[in-house]
Amino acid sequence: MKSIALTSLAMVLAACSDSLSPGLTNEKNSPPALARSNVASSTGVPVTVLPSLGGSASARAINDAGTIVGTSVEVTRSSSTSYAIKWTLVNGAWTIAKLPGGQGAAAYAINGNETIVGQSSERRAVMWTLGGGPVVLGCPQDVGPDYALGINTQETVVGARSDVSPGRAVVWTKGGCREDLPPLPNGGGSAEARAINDGGTVAGHAYDAANNEWAVVWTRETDPATMVTTWVIHQLDAPGQAGAWNINGAGNVVGSFFPCVPGTGTCRAHAMLWPAGSAGTDLGTLGGALSAAFGINTAGEIVGYSYPASPPGSNNNHAFVWWPTAAGATTGTMQDLGTLGNDTDSEAYGINTNRQVVGLGLNNHTGSRRALLWPMSAP
Questions:
Q1: What is the per-residue pLDDT for 37?
Q2: How high is the mean pLDDT of the chain?
Q3: Closest residue by Cα to residue 251 from 149, 352, 328
Q4: 278 closest CA partner among 254, 302, 252, 257
Q5: Which end of the chain is least crowded, N or C, by CB within 10 Å?
Q6: Mapping DSSP to helix (H, G, I), strand (E, B) and coil, where does residue 27 land?
Q7: Is 124 helix (H, G, I), strand (E, B) or coil?
Q8: What pLDDT does 157 receive?
């Protein structure tokens, strides 16, 4: 994941797709891998390697109960197949389970009711509940491809559709049909909705008519003249192009903006925090040139990845936690979670209220991934 754009479905799928490199023949007969706990990363941070189906795995999201969702590859003598996955802690041990109908699917988000959303192998937005699934979201007239990236407690789901051009950000209310969210005005381009909080505010990104990308939120607002309630798009303040990835209950948004070096055409993403109703704050990096933020919890603790300071010029990602100086503060410190074993990279995507962080470890030489859990405590 070396692209600095960090903002398209291609990036999401690239990180979540665990297809094995053709050269990984040593995994062909691997049994399901067991979890390994209390392993120390290169920076001394405790980390748990979550079990896999025998091949690569990545963890995408975690709820406050500690249930984790993502993908893993099942490897047989003749093939490798990716599945949507759920990990749960049972009697002190992490267990892995395929989601029903999860072959070729991906799980992207989970809420406090254990409801999971993602995309099926047929490239449709789907939902899994405790009672089963997957259930295709929307109504019969809603055609794909589409995909779901976020869900709140009320089971309002957000994502995008690509059956039209430009692609549209969309929302599904519980039991309702798919609804397009408005693009940026004046000939706006494609858009994608990535997260929704329990207040109903949606975070994502949208392109303008000049193909510039911007971090946006959508809110439901009532026109006092007509008393009609509709979705309204708001562009977040940023010193350059930007994209939003997540939002917490307080309305604080995280993502990236893309400062460019004048005269060079070189742009490097920086992790950014947009407090509700306020201008964005650059969270900085671990000392390298690039960073990106993907998850935020109720306390305003943020996770993502960054290039580290050492070795100089490194372009390997290190997972981080950004600790605010106080709950909801815009100042804080970024902690390097390091890498594990032979992994070249690590990336963090979700953090819950108990400071459990999930993501992946990546070996850029082999293409293999493993799902990771960092049980953190505030510094």
A1: 67
A2: 88
A3: 328
A4: 252
A5: C
A6: helix
A7: coil
A8: 98
Beta carbons within 8 Å of 236's beta carbon, 6+ residues apart? 214, 215, 216, 217, 242, 244, 253, 274, 280
Amino acid at 166: P
Answer whether residue 22 is part of any domain.
no
Rounded to a whole number of angstroms, the distance between the first and last alpha carbons of the chain is 29
Residue 341 maps to a domain: yes
**Percent of the chain having pLDDT more than 70?**
89
pLDDT tens digit sequence for 106-158 = 999 999 999 999 999 999 999 999 878 899 999 999 999 999 999 999 999 99
Q: Which of 118, 121, 124, 71 is nearest to 101 (CA)?
A: 121
User: What pTM value is reported for the model?
Assistant: 0.89
pLDDT above 90 covers a percentage of the chain that reads: 75
For residue 354, give the amino acid letter. N
Closest to 369 measured CA to CA, from 177, 6, 82, 126: 82
Query: Using alpha carbons only, what angle is made at residue 153 by residues 152 and 156, rounded to the nearest 5 degrees?
Result: 50
The structure tokens listed for 102 are: 């999860």
Query: Domain total for the chain?
Result: 1
Give the ranges where the chain is alpha helix by DSSP (H).
9-16
For residue 15, tell me if it sits in a domain: no
Cα separation, 121 vs 70, in Å, equals 14
